[in-house]
Design goal:
By secondary structure, this protein is an alpha/beta fold. It folds into 2 domains: about 40 residues; about 325 residues, SGNH hydrolase (Rossmann fold, 3-Layer(aba) Sandwich), CATH 3.40.50. It is about 50% helix and about 10% strand. The protein has a 5-stranded parallel beta sheet with strand order 6-5-7-8-9, with helices on both faces. The longest helix is centred in the first third of the chain and has 38 residues. The relative contact order is 0.11. About 0% of the residues have low confidence.
């Protein structure tokens, strides 16, 4: 009996110590999260409007030549208009989209109807919001000829925003290309559209860089980025992209697929023990990867649900002799990412992107799997692979959150893509 009581006492003591340690670790994790929210300078910049805490005063500037209006005018695509052009007609848009509708399977046609309305009646079913509202269909179609000088982007920065005669954030341009024009259509979401002005987005800088390099103005790069887009929505708008008569389509797409489509599925499908464990702030923060699917499981869903959309777009483009390039998607990282920056990107992930059960490292793992699927798709379909993620690495001097770029990052991305296209003889 005495031995039993002794062992019972020892066991109880161990359990009490373990409970105390677990409580201490949980308290530490919750205190750490609270500390990030109240003290991290990058978080305070986002939540309280304080200055971005980068010591270099020029860290948010562009190169001088990009700000030289006279030089930039010489580097603008020859078909781009300084004045508004008549909006493209709904009848013309509907005609193009009907060809896409007929190429879709039954589920795709249902998505099409949900976004556009009943085929042949789109102009009646799509009703734009009144006033100067930006959206014709939220996070899918911009209204045409909307100007906002106080437009706030996802980083809380003020932009001078203008949507052209096609409903894209670019200068107006005619559908028909001029003689000798090489037209590139840049497809993506807010990470393609972003920039303080229409002339300082990555597609606009890509256009200027190519024309400056070749001392011409025959390159037209169209910014078809729409905030909130994902691969399925791009599939539904592929007729609009191809109707612009591009010579090349460049796709920069990933984060909305991962964070808004896939993570909700992976979080919902967690096992009961994973759902129980993730309620612990300590376990969820430090062992988050164990609470989500492994890379192989992620890869299967990415291939089935996301690469299928990109493959559909690529095949329709190739059938029209349009080159297709897929970019790997960049994220903060590299050896010089500080602990303060990493804590900020963790905050961005669970507060704004992945939800409270997803941390930054889990996003990076999913993104690496997604980028691997893009490389494989390019190899399988004979597409151009542009390694943006491999060549655009850094911290808060470049990335305003887990995906959006500040001005130096926008310029770096455009410059790298231009150099890649020239170096590999893809444009001449």
């Amino acid at each position: 009996m005495r031995n039993f009581l002794k062992y019972f006492f020892y066991l109880g003591s161990i359990l009490l110590w373990l409970a105390a340690v677990a409580a201490a670790l949980e308290f530490y994790a919750r205190w750490q999260l609270r500390s990030v929210e109240t003290k991290n300078p990058f978080v305070l910049s986002r939540t309280q409007g304080k200055l971005w805490p980068i010591p270099d005063a020029q860290s948010n500037a562009f190169s001088d030549w990009l700000l030289d209006k006279e030089l930039r005018s010489k580097c603008k695509g020859k078909g781009k208009s300084a004045d508004p052009l008549p909006p493209v007609s709904p009848e013309w848009e509907n005609q193009n989209r009907m060809a896409l509708f007929n190429d879709l399977d039954e589920s795709g046609q249902q998505v099409f109807k949900n976004l556009y309305g009943i085929p042949g009646q789109q102009s009646e079913s799509i009703s734009a919001a009144p006033g100067d509202d930006l959206w014709e269909v939220p996070f899918f179609l911009y209204r045409k000829h909307v100007r906002r000088k106080d437009h706030k982007n996802v980083l809380g920065l003020t932009e001078d925003f203008y949507s052209n005669n096609h409903g894209f954030r670019d200068a107006d341009f005619p559908v028909e290309k001029g003689a000798g024009v090489f037209r590139i259509v840049c497809v993506g979401a807010s990470t393609t559209e972003e920039g303080p002005t229409n002339d300082l987005t990555f597609p606009a800088i890509l256009e200027a860089t190519l024309n400056r390099h070749f001392d011409t103005n025959r390159f037209e790069v169209i910014n078809c980025g729409i905030s909130g887009m994902n691969s399925l929505k791009h599939r539904m708008r592929s007729a609009d992209y191809l109707a612009l008569n591009p010579d090349m389509i460049i796709i920069y797409n990933a984060v909305n697929d991962i964070c808004h489509d896939l993570f909700p599925i992976w979080v919902k499908d967690a096992s009961p023990w994973q759902q129980w464990l993730r309620e612990s702030a300590f376990i969820n923060h430090y062992f988050n990867g164990r609470l989500l699917p492994d890379a192989n499981t992620m890869a299967v869903l990415i291939e089935q649900n996301k690469m299928a959309d990109l493959r559909f777009i690529a095949n329709r483009a190739k059938a029209r002799n349009v080159q297709v390039a897929l970019c790997s998607f960049a994220a903060p990282g590299g050896p010089h990412l500080s602990a303060v920056e990493r804590a900020y990107y963790d905050y961005c992930t669970y507060k704004e992107w992945g939800g409270k059960y997803v941390m930054f490292d889990s996003y990076l793992r999913a993104l690496d799997t997604y980028n691997g699927a893009i490389r494989q798709l390019c190899e399988q379909e004979g597409l151009i692979y542009i390694p943006v993620a491999e060549n655009l690495q850094g911290g808060a001097a470049l990335f305003g959150d887990i995906c959006h770029l500040r001005n130096p990052g926008i310029e770096m991305k455009a410059t790298f893509i231009a150099e890649f296209l020239v170096k590999n003889g893809i444009v001449k």
